[in-house]
User: What shape does this take?
Amino acid sequence: MRKAILSAVLVALATGTVARAETLRIEGSSTVGPIADAFAEYFKSVNPGLEITVNKNGSGNGATALIEGRCDIAAMSRFMSPDEFAKAVANKVYPVAWTIAMDGICVVVHPSNPVKALTSAQVRDIYMGKITNWSQVGGSNTPIVVISRDTSSGTYETFETLVMKKQPMAQGVEYVNANPQAQARVKTTAGAIGYVGLGFLEGVKVVPIDGVRPTKQTVANGTYPLSRPLFLFTNGFPKLGSIPFKFVTFYLSEKGQELVEAKDFVPVTNY
Assistant: This one.
């Protein structure tokens, strides 16, 4: 009897008549990570047996994983570069972008820092090493500890474009590999400055840039100068009705918008 049951199971597996757990692999941006985690948790709750992994290791790594077929969805806080697109097409991967939310890159300092505002030019000079003490921008006589995201980060690349204007950062800049690390470093270091997404502001002080404070409203209407969209990328257009299709279009639903807002990002829909 046991042999018969085992034989039947093996036949069923071979013919695909036994249901296998469906998997969804997501890799990339630590900024998009909280949204991907929230979406994943919801999808698993309504799809018993669905397995979803979310690996938050940077936008560039997400793009590479999609190009190499190691993930189903790449989470990115920037658009794919022309070089990434070329590599994808050469590998017979055809990226399709889904804009799931808006975000603002927030310049943050330690809560004790008396500086009330900075300009983009001042922030650039701090990161270039031209301004090294807070007293030079109206603060106390305290050396500035400069924190940046690592170069594989989409947040870094956006900051490099919008603030640095492609100018090199100073040699003394300290690099960290994710938003939570940047947030924690600034939160615990009196002289620190860093930059993080809207969802990572707990325990740090946000500094208005060019006279505009980053809020959901200023990001949504584009008045905050460091606003940017957040993306999910798939290899081609997912099959209609499939789990990948439902996942990347979930932001269009009221529940998806609710989860985006719950993570302190800005929905691209308005119900």
The mean pLDDT is 91. The two ends are 58 Å apart (CA to CA).
